[in-house]
Automatic annotation (TrEMBL):
Residues 324-466 form the ABC-2 type transporter transmembrane domain. This is ABC-2 type transport system permease protein. The chain crosses the membrane at residues 25-50, 62-83, 114-135, 147-168, 180-203, 229-251, 297-320, 332-356, 377-399, 405-434, 446-464, 484-502. It is found in: Membrane. Pfam families: ABC2_membrane_3. InterPro entries: ABC2_TM. It is a multi-pass membrane protein. Keywords: Membrane, Transmembrane, Transmembrane helix. The keyword Isomerase does not apply.
């Protein structure tokens, strides 16, 4: 029975990959290339250098920190898939009308979740750590114990993800839980940037703060002692399948008893009609949707963490990203440029593509495409600008810069939102995607590639973009006020041109009709 369902699921996933368009295949290959060229070597190098050269007392602390980091991050990555597989995907209902047991169905679902989302990560980490420690202590057996231990961490992460989802769905609807936990999953997706970019600069102080757990790891993961090694190897090898079995029993029992879908409440509200301009009415509609629909936050909020990634890159690598100057003034202005461009482009595109879900309704309304575009423009400005000003103020308190630099940074951020938001709106209106299983998937392959390339370009060029704004006064690097005023003047002109031309082009897209891709 398990094998039969496994074959069906395997064929389903194979059919999905066969149906992929050329553009999406190129995007996946591009992301895989970035992963293999940047992420994998960086993690391997950090683990290898640290574990091979660190004092023995720090190895156990580092392994504890790595374990505490992996469990929540992997659990949050799993949440999205669990919500889709267990609640939003209707194929479970189809399985359960067949002569198969619920346990077999959920066994296959759990198997795929673990195999595709957890196993590659824990195997890679275990090999990087195990092979390094094996070479340090000249004990090949440490590679085996490392694999067994990190497989246990993977099982623990899987168990934590399933338990969290099924516990919280008892007090709220599965859809609402999915929206909230997707937000935390998005935040978790940004965390590795901090860890990878930090390298050894901030890693050592954090490791020093961790408690000494030599009594657990010593003799098993490093400095092997045969008796302790065999004992813990058996314990962790038995604990992993035991955890998975407990989760499987819990999931099966929850579905059979019908407790997993508890908490779906229906709220009725009285409707109130107001008169006003079309732009005002459409703006109010967007604001109301955002306030009551948490997945709007989960789709865009994690992107607001990237300015802090930029902050770390510029402050820790000034020679790479900022040329010869390492002025805090330039750092703040660079973040204002890079962060506001990235966030305005991505968030405006996502907010505009959201209208594909209600496009038929918009077409029936007595409003022009330009009115819809103006309302969306105001909505993007109202939701993006305050958030980015708050981020700029936070970074201002981190850096040592005068208030005038903060004023320049805020002014540049506001003008760049006004300039870039219409471009993001145009990208979002080109070929939006509507997906019931993954509402946050709104942009087509072309838009995703454009935004991804823009982000990578900003990461490598953000320091150089603002070199012309900094001068040396004989003692330190300072901002050129005349140049800053010219930059602000140019941005004012560009924001006006963007509003006149790009906004009208976006309005024309509404009038012409969306080329919508429906999925799921």
């Amino acid at each position: 029975m398990f094998k039969s369902i496994l074959k069906v699921e395997a064929q389903s996933r194979l059919n999905y990959f066969k149906a992929l368009g050329t553009g999406k295949i190129i995007l996946y290959l591009f992301l895989a290339f970035i992963l293999l060229v940047m992420l994998v070597p960086a993690v391997w190098m950090v683990l290898n250098i640290f574990l091979f050269n660190a004092e023995e007392v720090l190895i156990g602390k580092a392994l504890l920190l790595l374990s505490l980091f992996l469990v929540p991050v992997l659990s949050l990555f799993l949440v999205n898939g669990i919500i889709k597989e267990m609640f939003m995907d209707k194929n479970i209902d189809s399985y359960l009308v067949l002569p198969v047991t619920p346990r077999a169905v959920f066994s296959v679902k759990l198997f795929y979740q673990f195999t595709f989302k957890v196993l590659p990560v824990v195997l890679f980490i275990s090999l990087a750590a195990g092979l390094t420690l094996s070479a340090r202590y000249e004990a090949p057996m440490l590679a085996v114990s490392s694999i067994v231990y990190f497989l246990f961490i993977g099982a623990l992460s899987t168990a934590a993800a399933y338990i969290v989802v099924f516990l919280v769905t008892k007090v709220s609807s599965a859809r609402r839980v999915g929206e909230i936990l997707t937000l935390f999953g998005g935040v978790a997706s940004v965390l590795p940037y901090f860890i990878i970019m930090a390298g050894g600069q901030y890693l050592r102080p954090v490791i020093n703060m961790m408690p000494n757990v030599d009594f657990i790891f010593s003799g098993f993961l490093y400095d092997p002692e045969m008796l302790k090694y065999i004992l813990l190897l058996l314990v962790f090898a038995a604990a992993s399948p035991a955890l998975i079995a407990l989760v499987l029993n819990y999931v099966t029992a929850a579905f059979v008893k019908g407790t997993a879908t508890a908490g779906n409440l229906e709220h009725k509200k009285t409707a109130a009609a107001e008169t006003g301009s079309p732009v005002r009415a459409l703006l109010k509609k967007d604001m109301t949707m955002t306030k009551r629909d948490f997945k709007e936050w989960s789709a865009v909020l994690p992107q607001y963490l990237f300015p802090f990634v930029f902050l770390f890159l510029l402050t820790s690598n000034p020679l790479i990203y900022g040329g010869e100057s390492s002025s805090d003034d330039q750092v703040l202005i660079s973040i204002a440029f890079a962060g506001s461009i990235m966030i305005s482009l991505f968030v405006a595109a996502m907010n505009t593509a959201r209208d594909a879900r209600t496009y038929d309704f918009l077409k029936m309304m007595p409003v022009s495409g330009l009115d819809i575009a103006k309302a969306k423009y105001l909505y993007n400005f109202i939701t993006i600008t305050p958030m980015y000003i708050i981020i700029t103020i936070i970074i201002y308190f981190i850096l040592d810069v005068p208030v005038t630099t903060l004023i320049y940074a805020v002014g540049i951020s506001v003008l760049l939102v006004l300039t870039i938001a219409p471009l993001g709106m145009l990208l979002g209106a080109m070929n939006p995607v509507v997906s019931k299983k993954n509402p946050a998937q709104r942009l087509d392959t072309a838009a995703n590639i454009i935004i991804s390339v823009t982000i990578f370009a900003l990461i490598f060029l953000m320091g150089y973009m603002t070199q012309f704004t900094v001068g040396f006064n004989g003692e330190e690097y300072v901002l050129k006020h005349g140049t800053m005023l010219i930059v602000i003047g140019v941005l004012i002109i560009l924001s006006i041109l963007s509003y006149v031309f790009l906004l009208r082009k976006t309005g024309a897209k509404y009038d012409e009709g969306y080329n919508i891709t429906y999925k799921d």
